[in-house]
Design goal:
The complex is a heterodimer of chains A (540) and B (278). Chain A is of the alpha/beta class and 540 residues long. Helix content of chain A is 37%, strand content 24%. Chain A contains 21 helices and 20 strands. In chain A, the strands form 4 sheets. In chain A, strands 6-7-8-3-9-10 form a 6-stranded mixed sheet. In chain A, strand 14 and strand 15 form a beta hairpin. Chain A starts with 5 loop residues before the first strand and ends with a helix. The model of chain A has no long low-confidence stretch (mean pLDDT 86). Chain B has 278 residues and is an all-alpha fold. Helix content of chain B is 75%, strand content 0%. In chain B, helix 2 packs across helix 10, helix 4 runs antiparallel to helix 6 and helix 8 packs antiparallel against helix 10. In chain B, 45% of the residues are buried. The chains are: A alpha/beta (540), B mainly alpha (278). At the A-B interface, strand 16 and helix 14 of A face helix 7 and helix 8 of B. Chain B: It comes from Billgrantia zhangzhouensis. Chain B: It is a multi-pass membrane protein. Chain B: Keywords: Cell membrane, Membrane, Transmembrane, Transmembrane helix, Transport. Chain B: Its main location: membrane. Chain B: This is ABC transporter permease.
Chain lengths: 540, 278
């Protein structure tokens, strides 16, 4: 299979960033080969420059970034020396590419079949009838259910996984020798991700292509990689076969990254007897209705379907589910950003679900939320100290006292009191998430809801923020409702785990029960889909 | 990079700013250089520019000094442009903010009200309003403000609609801030840059509207404005071109300068967009 002739050979590639960027070079002196019949994984955290080399291969470097040294040899040709026109001939025909977000990479107003046919058309191949026939064959090959119907569908009528399959079909249409996949599964749910990874692996083996696979997830690397290249700050820190890198990482950074992955090892069960619950959710229902228009009936989505659970003081309950499972809606109902249609939400005896208006506003301080997106959750125009002090100030604490408190809180979350006078944009994603945690703590809430609070962070940062949450839990005996799509993360921090699917609770139990001896088929499926799980099991 | 440095990157904006400053200077110096009323007849009518020493831009049909009219007119034009824009913002911003923040029925009601104004052609409505209220500086300012607030309301509403679901706004709701605080402190500051850009262009439109009203004889009879000067000169345009030419150039330059400044502000306030454009 692997005949070791490199299809793509990157030699000493150095790409300069425009002046005023945070470093001089996007990548510096990077060399690696991608051979026929292998999957080369380029791994790194955000800002490591892992995508830049791929952009150079495709001739799609962002404005201001220019190569200053090295060469990118594809079939003996230096791609950096090609004109835009020559590059266009290679793209699609000999080098295929799939992107992270399949919705934005497809034209929303064009039928799927026409978009695939367009690839042939761009390179002047076949008659229009042959193009349709080939598009159908491709859709069959990438395993889309009912390909004869999918070919006439618009992108919005397909699911995320199906759209990614269409993207793969387009990339493979002209049988390229090299496929570049830039984080192709990052936007997908775990079960879909597992299917897409399998598809890429199968297609690669059938066609003997070379694949350059860019990802931030070592789990994914363990699933697909033949060889691995670990990058950091634009440099290669480690390069080797998958087995070498994953089992015997030589560089400490690789080791740190591998250790930061939430593992299968579940912390010992805590607590014991469950005291009177702090939060008691009974038969919660929420249905979203789209406004009915002149020509379309109102559509209903059942986001929460008869959900009941309890949360004890000092306990951490994890809500796990894929997108569309209703887990976020549940969190938003608990903090009352949404109003449940029916059911009760009792918070230490008070019925939280029926409060409205000013009465609700006065009770809001009791439940706080840590948000998902560290970039959107802080007002760009407010200084950090003020952002934290706003809560106490809205509840009647004088400004000076609230600001002193903010300093203490920033100290507590490990940012230091000097942070009060700075603006959010001066902080990294992980630091902003710490600010978000400080803001949630500022009101001394009885319950904190963390909605995907670590999902947007790199693994090493994710581990730090989880450690901080764990520490705060011990120190302040917090009660936490932890919402996540990642079972591994949930297993790290939660005492009890609730698995949700399509608005219903599928399974609930202690972290150990759910993780180690799942009862429901769906939970098992979720666990099996975790990338890298087989590898880890083999290691243990 | 500082705000001004980003603004100065746009050459046109600097030129616009220079022209604008020159016009403001004209307005300030007018009472010093021409202390007498611009309505006073000071020389023989129809003097061509440069014909007589001291009357560089000539005199009009009644023997009034065109240069004096131009300088005093600068004051009127700028004042009307600025005040009517301020009034339009005072109507449009709160309306758009409330509609965009609350949505639902309140939004529907306010937007239908806005559309009511949008369906009537701007200029026709302004003429009717001035005619009903009697031409005066106050009625002209009000008329211009009333016809120009709907776009402001629409812009602010759109910004509020996109910002009200941001996580930081939801966080503010969760800590128990009142709707008033959220609107004023969380969302409004983040909508300022498009509002400032729109306002700079609205000043230009207001100056044009005032000129057009004065041209039709609906200007304040007690103040000399550029529009009035052109309107009064239109019958003699073939005999005395300078009577309409100089105020026309003044209007052109002012509006051009305001547009250039508006564009520069847009670049400076949205550094990301500016970088992509260049």
């Amino acid at each position: 299979m692997n005949d070791n002739t490199p299809v793509l050979s990157i030699r000493g590639l150095t790409l300069a960033l425009p002046q005023g960027a945070d470093r001089d070079y996007a990548v510096e002196d990077v060399s690696y080969d991608v051979a026929r019949g292998e999957i080369m994984c380029v791994v790194g955290e955000s800002g490591s420059g892992k995508s830049m080399a791929a952009n150079a291969v495709m001739g799609l470097l962002p404005k201001g970034v220019r190569p200053t040294a090295g060469e990118v040899l594809f079939d003996g040709q230096d791609l950096l020396a090609l004109s835009e026109k020559q590059h266009r001939k290679l793209r699609g025909l000999r080098i295929g590419m799939i992107f992270q977000e399949p919705m934005t990479a497809l034209n929303p107003l064009m039928r799927v079949g026409a978009q695939i046919a367009e690839v042939f058309e761009a390179h002047g191949k076949y008659t229009s009838r042959e193009r349709q026939a080939r598009a159908l064959a491709l859709l069959e090959e990438v395993g889309i259910p009912q390909p004869d119907r999918a070919i006439r569908a618009y992108p919005f009528q397909l699911s995320g996984g199906q759209r990614q399959r269409v993207m793969i079909a387009m990339a493979l249409a002209l049988e390229p020798e090299l496929l570049i996949a830039d984080e192709p599964t990052t936007a997908l749910d775990v079960t879909t991700q597992a299917q897409i990874l399998e598809l890429i692996r199968d297609l690669q083996q059938q066609r003997g292509m070379a694949v350059m696979f860019i990802t931030h997830d070592f789990g994914v690397v363990a699933e697909v990689a033949t060889r691995v290249c670990v990058m950091r700050y634009g440099r290669i820190v480690e390069l080797g076969t998958a087995d070498e890198v994953l089992d015997n990482p030589r560089h400490e950074y690789t080791r740190a990254l591998l250790e930061a992955i939430p593992s299968n090892v579940i912390p010992e069960a805590r607590g014991g007897e469950r005291p009177t619950p702090l939060l008691e959710v009974r038969n919660l229902n929420k249905i979203f209705r789209s406004r009915s228009g002149l020509f379309k009936p109102a559509r209903e989505v059942r986001a929460l379907d008869d959900v009941s659970f309890t949360l004890a003081p000092g306990e951490t309950v994890g809500i796990v589910g894929e997108s569309g499972s209703g887990k976020s809606t549940l969190g938003r109902c608990v903090v009352r950003l949404e109003r449940p249609d029916s059911g009760t939400l009792a918070l230490a005896g008070t019925d939280f679900s029926s409060l409205r208006g000013d009465a609700l506003r006065r009770e809001r301080h009791r439940v706080q939320m840590i948000f998902q997106d560290p970039y959107a959750s802080l007002n760009p125009r407010h200084r950090v100290g003020y952002a934290i002090a706003q809560g106490p100030m809205a509840n009647g604490v004088p400004r000076a006292k609230a600001m002193r408190q903010a300093e203490e809180l920033l100290e507590l979350v490990g940012l230091g009191a000097v942070a009060v006078d700075r603006f959010p944009h001066e902080f990294s994603g992980g630091q902003r998430q710490r600010i978000g945690i400080a803001r949630a703590l500022a009101l001394n809430p009885e319950l904190i809801v963390a909605d995907e609070a670590v999902s947007a962070l790199d693994v090493s940062i994710q581990a730090q923020v989880l450690a901080l949450l764990e520490e705060l839990k011990q120190k302040l005996s917090l009660s936490l409702l932890f919402i996540t799509h990642d079972l591994r993360v949930a297993a790290q921090i939660c005492d009890t785990i609730i698995v949700m699917q399509q608005g219903r609770i599928v399974e609930q139990g202690t972290a150990q029960e759910v993780f180690l001896s799942p009862k429901e088929a769906y939970t098992k499926q979720l666990l099996e889909a975790i990338p890298g799980r087989a590898h880890e099991a083999a290691m243990a | 990079m500082s705000f001004f440095a980003r603004f100065a990157q746009n050459r046109g904006a600097l030129v616009g700013l220079a022209i604008l400053l020159a016009i403001v200077l004209m307005a300030i110096l007018a009472p010093l250089l021409y202390p007498e009323s611009p309505w006073r007849m000071v020389q023989r009518p129809f003097l061509a520019p440069m014909e007589v020493e001291g009357f560089w831009l000539g005199t009009d049909t009644m023997g009034r000094d065109v240069a004096a009219g131009l300088m005093h007119g600068a004051w009127v034009s700028l004042l009307i442009g600025l005040i009517s824009t301020t009034v339009a913002l005072l109507i449009g911003v709160p309306l758009g903010a409330v509609a965009g923040y609350y949505g639902g029925l309140i939004d529907d009601a306010l937007m239908r009200f806005t559309e009511f104004f949008q369906t009537i052609p701007n200029f026709a409505l302004a003429i009717v309003l001035v005619a009903i209220m009697q031409p005066s500086v106050v009625s002209i300012v009000l008329a211009i403000a009333i016809v120009s607030w709907p776009p402001v309301a629409r812009l602010v509403r759109a910004e509020f609609m996109s910002l009200r679901h941001r996580e930081y706004v939801e966080a503010a709701r969760l800590v128990g801030q009142t709707n008033r605080t959220i609107i004023l402190k969380q969302i409004l500051p983040n909508t300022l840059s498009p509002i400032i850009v729109l306002a700079s262009l609205m000043v230009a439109t207001a100056i044009l509207l005032e000129s057009a009203l004065s041209f039709l004889g609906l200007g304040d009879p007690n103040v000399m404005s550029w529009g009035y000067m052109i309107g009064a000169a239109r019958t003699v345009i073939r005999q005395a071109w300078w009577l309409s030419f100089f105020p026309g150039v003044a209007i052109l330059l002012t509006v051009l300068a305001l547009n250039l400044v508006g564009e520069g502000l847009d670049d400076a306030l949205n550094p990301k967009l500016a970088r992509e454009r260049s």
